[in-house]
Amino acid sequence: MSQDFQVTKASGQTELFDEEKLRRSLLRAGADEITIDQILQELAGQWYEGISTKSIFKRAFKMLKRQHRSAAARYTLKQAMFDFGPSGFPFEDFFAEILKSRGYQVQTRQLLPGVCIQHEVDAVAENEHTLIWVECKYHPMAGSVSNVKIPLYIHSRFRDMEQYWAKNQPQKEGQNVEGWIVTNTRFSDDAMDYGRCAGMHLVGWNYPSKGSLREMVDEAKLHPVTCLTLLTRQEKTKLLEHNIILSKTLSKPGRWSDLLHLSSDRRDKVMREANAL
Predict the structure, then answer these.
(1) E-state strands within the chain
(2) Burial letters for 30-41: b for 16+ Cβ neighbours within 10 Å, e otherwise?
(3) Is the model more confident about 169 or about 206?
(4) What is the pTM of this model?
(5) N or C: more exposed end of the chain, with fewer CB within 10 A?
(6) Which residues are CB-neighbours of 269 under 8 A, at least 6 positions away?
(7) Is the peptide bond prior to 208 cis by the omega test (within 30 degrees of 0)?
(8) Are the beta carbons of 146 and 183 closer than 8 angstroms?
(9) CA pair distance 115, 159, nearest whole angstrom
(10) What is the DSSP letter of 207?
């Protein structure tokens, strides 16, 4: 089939298939050029008009897993974010780990005073130069969008805290205070416009072009346990319920293997996959 066909995104929108985009995602996951060429050649006979991006992902993942399991695990990163569960707490904890990897001291789920009321803040990150208040907007489904109401609402909360902070907490010399909103999907155009205008720092999966969530995860070289291909959904959920978020925690024996009651052989296989990540 010709490569000129439309694909259907999770949002329901359609766009022209971009083979280079698929190639880049496989390359970023760690697949070599020979493996990528083989996958694309095999997939070429499976395309059809209107195929969903989810179907493309599943087919590519299945082929990649056969040849390069650790690359397949990295390839699932975006999907792994949707598997954090309904509470959103694992997403907050995962992003806190990313900030820690950047040298920040981080506390999650803090209750901070404002001039008018108290506010629960998902994460507070601080280093010598910057104090960051972070609001995480987790979505369990692809195609979800954080609209302009979110930065409008959160900006008013941050302003309330900022006014209290200016009056009652003398700012460290040279330290900036920043308000961040982080989502595992994307923001609407109005939300991004408002964020830029209001001086807020919005981070989405592919936004901004420099410093997106995907880029921050790549730089930190951190992967959630939901990436691992050798664990069942139930096992991943159990780990998250016990606040075991990072795949690197599974690179050596510990409490996690006792929780899952794995055989020694299966435990060792999971450890090898975690180490490969």
Answers:
(1) 6-8, 14-16, 51-52, 105-113, 118-126, 130-137, 145-146, 176-183, 186-187, 201-203
(2) bbeeebbeebee
(3) 206
(4) 0.85
(5) N
(6) 230
(7) yes
(8) yes
(9) 9
(10) B
What number of other Cβ atoms are within 10 A of residue 60's Cβ?
22
In the sheet where 6-8 sits, what is the strand order?
14-16, 6-8, 51-52
**What is residue 1's predicted lDDT score, i.e. its pLDDT?**
43
pLDDT tens-digit map of 154-201: 999 999 999 998 888 766 666 789 999 999 999 999 999 999 999 999
- For the chain, the maximum distance between any two Cα atoms, rounded to a whole number of angstroms, is 66
Alpha-carbon dihedral angle through residues 226, 107, 139, 65, given to the nearest 10 degrees = -20
If you average pLDDT over residues 249-258, what whole number do you get?
92
CB 136 within 8 A of CB 182: yes
- H helix intervals, 139-263: 149-168, 189-198, 213-220, 233-241, 255-260
Go through the domains of the chain in sequence order and give each one's CATH number. 6-75 (no CATH), 89-220 (3.40.1350.10), 223-276 (1.10.150)
Is 180 strand, coil or helix? Answer: strand
Q: If DSSP codes are grouped into helix, strand and coil, which group holds residue 17?
A: coil
What's the angle, vertex CA 101, arms to CA 85 and CA 212, rounded to 5? 65
How far is residue 270's CA from residue 27's CA, in Å, rounded to a whole number? Answer: 23
Positive or negative torsion for Cα 168, 172, 97, 30: positive
CA distances in angstroms from 218 to 91, 140, 205, 224, listed in the order given: 16, 21, 12, 12
What contacts 232, CB < 8 A, 6 or more positions away? none
How high does pLDDT run on average in the chain? 92
Bridge partner residues of 34 (DSSP): none
